[in-house]
Amino acid sequence: MQFPQSLNRAQLPLFEGFLAATTAPLMEESELQYPWPEHSEAFSELSLRGAAGHCHNLLAPVLRELSQNDSSRWLTLIAPPASLTQSWLREAGLNRERILLLYPRSGQSALELAGEALKLGHSHTVVSWLQPLGQQAKRQLAQAARQGKAQSLNISLG
């Protein structure tokens, strides 16, 4: 039996690879504060359908993980649904000291506010609830996220 070429190559043992990774040169402080992988996707979407309680149960761990990010930057929620109250944030175990809740001012859309928050770079992730979200708006959010070295997450609750 003949194996594909890639299987015939010598492999680095697991622990040697781990030890080699821990001896990497130190990064500069600016790289530690705002790491931005070149291959990273700047825009993501999460669509949850079903009963509101079930959707919230699925959403809670995602937001909890984002709120506990080690970054010095904020998790910013743009115009969250009314059902995501301060008490829900507390009960879901989110670190409310690292969360900004922003709402558009008169004459400003949630999309514009999300774009501004992303561009500023004060947030590691900006979460929006924009529905429907067309391809042009997705590109705008992705570009703003890249500019601010942040992540844009749009959540669709149905």
Total number of domains = 1
Mean pLDDT: 82
| Poorly predicted spans | 1-34
Radius of gyration: 20 Å
Q: How would the global form be characterised?
A: globular
Class by SSE composition: alpha/beta
Please give the largest β-sheet: 5 strands, parallel
What keyword list fits this structure?
158 residues; alpha/beta; Rossmann fold; five-stranded parallel sheet; disordered N terminus
Account of the 3D structure:
- This is SOS-induced cell division inhibitor SulA.
- It comes from Pseudomonas zhanjiangensis.
- The chain is of the alpha/beta class and 158 residues long.
- It has a single domain, classed as 3-Layer(aba) Sandwich (Rossmann fold).
- 38% of the residues lie in helices and 18% in strands.
- It is built from 6 helices and 5 strands; from the N terminus they run ααβαβαβαβαβ.
- It has helices at 14-22, 29-33, 52-67, 86-91, 110-120, 135-147, and strands at 43-48, 74-78, 99-102, 123-128, 151-157.
- The protein has a 5-stranded parallel beta sheet, with helices on both faces.
- Strand 4 (123-128), helix 6 (135-147) and strand 5 form a beta-alpha-beta unit.
- 23% of the residues are buried.
- Residues 1-34 have low confidence and may be disordered.
Helix and strand layout, with pairings?
Elements: H1 14-22, H2 29-33, E1 43-48, H3 52-67, E2 74-78, H4 86-91, E3 99-102, H5 110-120, E4 123-128, H6 135-147, E5 151-157
Parallel strand pairs: 1-5, 2-3, 2-4, 4-5
Helix pairs in contact: 5-6
